[in-house]
Each structure stands twice: as C-alpha cells, then as structure tokens.
Design goal:
This protein is an all-alpha fold and 756 residues long. Helix content is 66%, strand content 0%.
Length: 756
C-alpha cells in the first residue's frame, strides 16, 4: 500500500482526537494546582497559636492541669525561655508540651511576668472555656504589670470571641494600646481587621496598609507578606510591583513562611518576575520546612514534573499527603491524581476516590469533577452515571471549567446518556468562559463539523487560535494540519508545521504522525526530511499503533535510520497488531511482516499466525494479503510447490486476488497444463505480462519480484512512474535502492532516498 495513503488513513482526519477514553485522552493532563492568594488565607496571626475545637469540662481541665504539674527538674533563670521553646518547637521525638507547661508554670509562680503570658498561650491550646478563662486571667495579670505582649493576647481573645466577655470594640482599643507600646503583632492584627473589615469596622485598605507598615517597621515577619500582596494585587492606588516584590523578599530573609511561599509562587507562575522553577523550588523548600502547607503542595507539583529540581514522584506524594493532613485544599486532589495514575505510589483507584472525596468535602470544585469521572468510569467505585452527572453539575456550578468540560463531554458523546448537543454546547461555552482550553478546542471542532450551531461571530479558527494561546496541544494539532492541508483555512505550511511541532513536543501522537507523513512526502526537497520523518514516527510508535506502522514502512526503506532497539520495538508492535484482528492496522501489519519474510529478511517472527491471518484477510477481499500468501507459499516467489495443496490454495485465492488474479491464473494453468510451458521462464514471462498489463499498483508491486531477474527493466519502470508523480513508485524505488538491488543509481536518487 502506498505509504502516504496509509499515513492519511491512519491519521485522524476528523479534527479532535477522541479515543475511547475521553477522560484519559481528550481531557487535559492534570496540571499543578497553584494556590491563589485571597487575603484571608495568609492572615494567620501568631504562628505559635493552634486551635482546638473541643470544649472540656471544669473537672477535665483540672485533671489536665494536675497531670501537667508534677514536680520536675528545675530551670535556671538564666536559661530564660530558650530551653522551654525547644520543648515546644523541637522535632516530634523531642517535643514535650507538658514539660514546657510545667516550666512556664514554675517561672510564673516565681513572679516572671513573661512566663504568665507563655503559660496563658499554652492554656489556649486546650481550647476549653475553663482553660480560656485561666489564660485570660494570666494575660490580664501580665498586662496590669505593663506586658505589651499580654495586651495583644487579651485583644486577640476578644477578637475571636474567647475572652470571658468578648467585646469587639474593646479588642480594637487594646490592640491600639499595644501597638502604641511597640508590639508588632498588635499592629499586624489591626492591619488584618481593617483589610478584612472584621470587628464591625469597614474595610479600609489604606488603614490596613499603614498598620502593616508599622508592624513591618518593628520587623514583625508576617507584615511583609501582606504588604507585598497589597502592593501587587490590592487597590490600584496602592500598587507598586517592584516594592511588593521587595516586601516579600524582606519577609523571606526574615524566614517568614508566607513571604517565602508568595515569592516562590511568583517564580513558579512567572508572574511579576521571570519564570524560574529552580528559585521557586528553593523558596518552597524553606516555606515547607516552616510548615506552610501551600508550599508543601506546590513543591510536590514541581517534584512531580521535575521542574527546578530532580523529578521525585515519591517525595511529591509524601508532601501531598503531609499537606492534606493539615487541611491544604489542593493537596488531596493532587494526591488523588497520583493514586489514579500510579505516579510515585502504587496505582489505587479506591485511594484516589477517597482523596477526591476529601478535596470535595473541602469545597474543591475541580475535585468534584474528578470524583464524577471516577463514578462515570466505575473506577474505585461502582459505576453510577447519575451520580457522575450530579457531581459534574456541582463542579460546573461551583466555577470549575473541568466540571463544565466533563459535563459537555458526557452530553456530547452519547455513550452513557442520550446525546444532547444543544446542552453540551452550553456547557462547552461555560467551560470556555472559565478558561478551559479543551472546551474551547471541542467547541471549535463541533462548530466546524456542524454538530453545534455557532452563536454570533463564533469561528472555529478564532476558537482554535484562542485554545492555542492557552497551550492546548489538541488545538495546535487541529489548526496545524488544517493550515498544512488548506482545510477551512488558507494554506500556510510554515504555520502548520510550527503548530504541529509544538503539539508533538507536548506528546500529541497525531501531530507526530502528521509530521512524519509530511516530511516523508517532502523528503526529495531536503535530505534531512526522511530522518525527521523517522524520528517523529518512532516517537509515536512507542505509544500508538499508527506510529509503529509508519515507522516500519520507513525502516524498510531506510534501515540505517533506526537502531536495533528501535527496530525491535517496531517489530514487536507489529506482531501485537497481527494478534489483534480488531486493530485498525491489523491488515497492514500482517501484509508488511509477510513481505519481510518473503524478502528473506531476518525477522524474528512466527510465520504461522501470519499465514493464518493472511488467509482470513484474503478471504475478506484483501488483494495484497492474497498476493503475499501466494508468494510466501512459493518460498522462492513466484513459484509454488507443485503439489495438490498449492493448487487448492490458488483456487481459493483467485476469487479474492483482484489485480493479482491474472498472475495466479497463469500459475494455476501451469499446474493444470504443464506441457504448454517449455520451462519456468515461460511461466514467469506469462505472469509478468499479466502483471504489467494491470494497474499501476500491480506493476509497481511486481517490480519487487522482477528486480532479481531484470533489475534494469524494474528500475526503468519505477523511475518512469516516479517521474510522473507516483509516490508509491518512489517508495518502492527507494526500498530497492536501499537493498542494493537497483544499482547503479544516480547520485540524486541516493540522496533523495537517504541511501548511504
């Protein structure tokens, strides 16, 4: 078969590549989830505070305190709080909060005002009404003795409603008093209050900026993170990108986790600064060590893709798991995708479902879509199309482009629910509005194929251009081959090749096949083109059968372009196709391997299943299969064994042999009337005459058998047809030149065919 025709058949000409599994191939790869920065997420107050929602009774708190207060080793006053802090913040094997409490308690009883504050802070961790009352008493006593820090804790308890008699107005008053006394945290909390409009004060970003600046002047680390955010993303009057980045850089120098994360995110996304994965990874590493769960998640994303540091999927999964346990919203989603793909962890669909549910419970709209996909496919959970649709709708209505995209797919492919292109188009448009490049690409395809009616000025080309700008590999493919072929758009070979090459770099196999076909067709214009065709074909061969088919065709003509490992890969792929009659390339693989055996190439293949497959193909009308079976049985083609089996074979093949039937009839006549033929040469002459009176394809195929006897005649026939533009003649000419069966050849021919 003409290699170019074969390539054209194998390429997906309809536009969008939509294999059987839409989730796997038509949906986007799950990209790293980058946390946005709403002002509320990084406003954490004092990092030493942890919250416990339990509310234990008075008796229970008394029991807790008794257990905390047994006699322990004494603490020298000169140690200050350094050793106690180590008991609080050390690694898990050395952490001992009860001992820390005992130490603060001892110093507090000895009259140490700061110890009262620290003891109160630990009491807050218990989280009960009684413990809060005791903590407030500690803060009140310390504040009375001029402890500015105690004032701030008092104000904080009023702010969050944990003071015995919470009072928002009093909270503001106490914060201001502490801020005037020089406490950076108090100034920071006032910034938070005015930025978010809590405590019954209106939002006032200008006031917030002033309070944050006052806090930063006192080197309170968290203030630099908020200052940076306002300078980069706040009200227009306050924006100053260079100054904002400097604020984050200062916060990073002070080891502030929030500043480290935000600066890392800027480098990760290439926003406001040049894209730099290495710097992003370094900043995330530091923030992750400090416990920033967003940094842990995003560092996992970089590790998963090997961006900025060595790829390490296992460590990425551990970071996702660690962040998920601390309620980071994106980590369970990423953990789920790792389990589903078996990336860095054993593939486990049930674990993926649990992770998606965890992310969904935290309000992650995209996780709802992924969970719905699991229900649709019955992966890790019993298949439930109704549940899948419900989850897709929840995701889409929650603002997720993936949810709207999956819902559009569900309604458009007609596999699990009746096709409804009107409803599907609505969801595709919604997903496109949300920024889904896949939905934009699909919308363009369906409008182009007239399955969806365009609205207003909607144009497939404009939509594909938009999806290309969003980095969609399918859109690059769709628009690229159209530019190459002049389908629906003016011919623009340069643009078409550029788009297909970009798509191929993103591992779009259809683009690789298109490029292999183009460069093979144009190989006479540039000696490097055939090598480029081979590279694209072998790259596609690793994942799809079409690539293996094209690579095999090229390897037969240009064996020097393929390594032994690549040839073995292609051969193995073709053998797999031979064993799968449902494969679209089954017939091509069977005939190709049969031709290789017939030509006495040293192929490590089992001929029996190939012969069996050839018989079935021939009976189904495949002329090429009939011819190859005829030649294979002859061992030294075209003569068959002179036996009854050979006669029966010919009789069975002739009705299906098409253009080759005349040659087979001559052979059968030889069996039946041997006296008519003086010798085998007479038989060959009659067969050759029949072949050369057939179609161009029959004549060209016969040259493979003619070349050993009449190389000059075979060469002249092929060159004449090649000169008239017959690409199949060019293919066979190059094949025979590479086999050194058509020598001598011209220098131009050798160059065009890549023969060395």
């Amino acid at each position: 078969m003409n290699a170019l025709i074969r390539i054209a058949i194998m390429c997906v000409a309809s536009g969008v590549l939509v294999p059987a599994s839409a989730q796997q191939d038509f949906a986007p790869r799950i990209e790293p989830t980058l946390s946005a920065h709403p002002a509320s997420t990084s406003i954490t107050g004092n990092n030493n505070v942890s919250f416990n929602a339990s509310n234990v009774s008075s008796n229970e708190i008394a029991s807790v305190l008794r257990n905390l207060r047994p006699a322990g080793s004494s603490l020298d006053a000169s140690d200050e709080f350094e050793l106690i802090r180590a008991l609080e913040t050390g690694d898990e094997t050395k952490r001992d909060l009860p001992r820390a409490f005992r130490a603060y308690d001892k110093l507090a009883k000895e009259g140490n005002i700061a110890a009262h504050v620290e003891r109160g802070r630990l009491l807050l961790d218990i989280g009960s009404t009684t413990a809060d009352a005791l903590a407030h008493a500690d803060f009140e006593a310390s504040a009375a003795k001029k402890s500015i820090q105690a004032l701030t804790w008092q104000a904080w308890m009023h702010e969050v409603g944990r003071a015995p008699k919470g009072d928002f107005k009093l909270a503001i008053s106490i914060y201001e008093k502490a801020a005037q006394g020089g406490d950076g945290w108090a100034s920071f909390r006032l910034g938070v209050v005015h930025q978010t409009g809590t405590l019954r004060v209106g939002k006032d970003e200008n006031a917030a900026l002033n309070w944050y600046q006052q806090s930063a002047d006192r080197l309170y680390p968290e203030a630099f993170c908020e200052l940076g955010w306002i300078r980069l993303y706040g009200e227009a009057r306050h924006r100053d990108e260079a100054r904002g980045l400097r604020e984050w850089a200062t916060g990073a120098k002070l080891n502030n986790a929030c500043s480290l994360f935000q600066l890392g995110l800027a480098y990760h996304e290439g926003k406001k600064v040049s894209l730099d994965y290495t710097t992003a990874a370094s900043l995330y590493e530091r923030a992750a060590i400090l416990g920033d769960v967003r940094a842990q998640n995003n560092l996992g994303n970089l590790l998963l893709d090997g961006l900025g540091l060595k790829k390490d999927a296992s460590r990425a999964v551990e970071l996702y798991r660690k962040a998920a346990l601390k309620n980071e919203v994106n980590a369970p989603l990423n953990l789920g995708t790792a389990y589903e793909a078996g990336n860095g962890v054993d593939k486990d669909d049930e674990a993926a479902v649990r992770a998606y549910k965890q992310a969904s419970d935290r309000g992650h709209a995209k996780a709802l879509a992924f969970l719905g996909s699991m229900y649709r496919r019955g992966k890790g959970v019993e298949q439930d199309i109704r549940k899948a649709r419900e989850l897709f709708e929840l995701s889409a209505n929650g603002g997720s482009p993936v949810g709207a995209w999956y819902l559009g797919l569900l309604l458009s492919d007609g596999k699990d629910v009746p096709a409804d292109m009107v409803a599907a188009s609505s969801w595709f448009r919604k997903a496109a509005e949300f920024g889904s490049s896949d939905a934009t690409n699909a919308l363009a395809y369906y409008i182009s194929s007239r399955q969806i009616v365009a609205i207003g000025n909607e144009s497939p080309t404009v939509l594909w251009e938009r999806a290309v700008r969003l980095g969609n590999q399918f859109a690059m493919y769709n628009l690229g081959y159209r530019c190459l072929d002049g389908e629906d758009v003016p011919v623009d070979v340069s643009k078409g090749l550029l788009l297909l090459e970009r798509s191929a770099k993103l591992d779009h196999d259809g683009a690789k096949i298109r490029l292999a076909g183009y460069y093979y067709k144009e190989r006479f214009k540039n000696s490097k083109y055939v090598e480029m065709a081979a590279r694209y074909a072998i790259s596609a061969a690793r994942t799809i059968d079409e690539g293996a088919a094209v690579a095999y065709a090229l390897s037969q003509e240009n064996p020097h372009l393929f390594s032994s490992e690549e040839n073995a890969l292609v051969l193995k792929r073709l053998q797999d196709m031979v064993g799968d009659p449902s494969n679209a390339n089954h017939a091509y693989a069977v005939v190709s391997l049969a031709r290789g055996i017939q030509k006495e190439r040293k192929l490590a293949v089992d001929g029996i299943p190939i012969i069996s497959a050839l018989q079935k193909l021939a009976q189904n009308g495949n002329q090429d299969a009939a011819m190859q079976l005829f030649l294979l049985y002859g061992k030294k083609a075209p003569l068959l064994f002179f036996d009854t089996e050979g006669k029966r074979l010919l009789e069975s093949l002739i009705p299906f042999a098409g253009d080759f039937s005349a040659m087979m009839k001559a052979q059968l006549d030889f069996f039946q009337n041997p006296s008519v033929y003086s010798d085998e040469a007479a038989l060959l002459g009659k067969m050759e005459a029949a072949a050369l009176n057939g179609s161009d394809t029959t004549q060209i195929l016969w040259t493979r058998n003619m070349v050993t006897r009449s190389p000059e005649k075979a060469g002249n026939l092929l060159r004449a047809k090649a000169k008239n533009g017959n690409t199949f003649a060019v293919q066979v000419l190059c094949e025979l030149l590479n086999d050194y069966k058509l020598a001598p050849a011209s220098h131009d021919e050798l160059a065009r065919c890549g023969t060395k």
